[in-house]
Design brief:
catalytic activity, about 250 residues, about 15% strand, AB_hydrolase_fold, Rossmann fold, Pimeloyl-ACP methyl ester carboxylesterase, 7 strands, alpha/beta
Length: about 250
């Protein structure tokens, strides 16, 4: 499966960019004007069931998504590359690392799901499991994970994009996959350089969660916390995100 993608830039440093559970590759729209297209080549992809791959059939799992990412890298002719993954995309990036760690130069996780998945309590799982059918529950998730502090118009925009750009079946299957999959024993001790970017207003994938998971398992991991962001740094702090991400990848 060659994933639909936007190719941005012509630089020697190649980066595959993987979206989160609630949005497709257009989720990275706010950061696109600020990317260093002379130093980097970015491929922003849509996973099966999202965006231009909305009707693409499959099992819609993070393992399948990682295989699709590698197929897309082959199509691009990229032998070596870095990975940037937001939320669910962070879990997909780690599956790519497990499958082909010799090809991955570095990983940047933006509020990324840990390799252990997410052990939801009963109330949270009910909220997330009903979000495929309920716009109100999607809105509640976005509001919760950004600290209940952002404008209603933005929340409505995020929900509208999520509803238009995601397939309900894929959306539900991916939830089970990224939340219940545990590969942390397979990545523990991996020396690939890793940067975890967390928002101070994200109670779900918080800086503390990053410290207990990503920084614990990757010996060459770093953590940076955005004081003015929750779960959606591409929207909340696009300039800071690009600056941190590209400074790390350039090293």
């Amino acid at each position: 499966m060659i994933l639909p993608h936007d190719l941005i830039g012509s630089g020697e440093r190649r980066v595959l960019v993987l979206h989160g559970w609630l949005g497709d590759r257009t989720s990275f729209g706010p950061i696109r004007p600020y990317l260093d297209t002379g130093s980097f080549s970015y491929a922003l992809v849509d996973q099966r069931g999202y965006g231009e791959a909305l009707k693409q059939e499959g099992e819609h799992s993070v393992a399948e998504a990682a295989a699709d990412v590698l197929d897309t890298a082959e199509e691009l002719g990229w032998d070596r590359f870095s990975l940037v993954g937001h939320s669910m995309g962070g879990m997909v990036a780690q599956h790519v690392l497990v499958s082909a760690d010799e090809r991955v130069e570095a990983v940047v996780g933006i509020s990324p799901v840990p390799a252990s998945g997410v052990p939801f309590d009963e109330r949270s799982r009910h909220l997330f499991e009903g979000a495929d059918e309920s716009p109100d529950q999607r809105r509640a998730i976005i509001d919760l994970t950004t600290g209940n502090r952002l404008p209603a118009v933005w929340l409505d925009m995020m929900v509208d994009r999520s509803l238009r750009r995601t397939d309900k079946v894929a959306f539900r299957r991916f939830l089970d996959s990224w939340s219940r999959t545990d590969i942390h024993e397979r990545i523990e001790g991996n020396t690939t350089p890793v940067l975890a970017l967390a928002g101070a207003h994200d109670p779900a994938l918080s800086p503390e969660v990053m410290t207990d998971t990503w920084l614990r398992w990757y010996p060459n991991a770093e953590l940076e916390v955005f004081a003015d962001a929750g779960h959606y740094a591409p929207d909340e702090v696009p300039l800071s995100l690009v600056s941190s991400m590209e400074a790390f990848l350039a090293r």
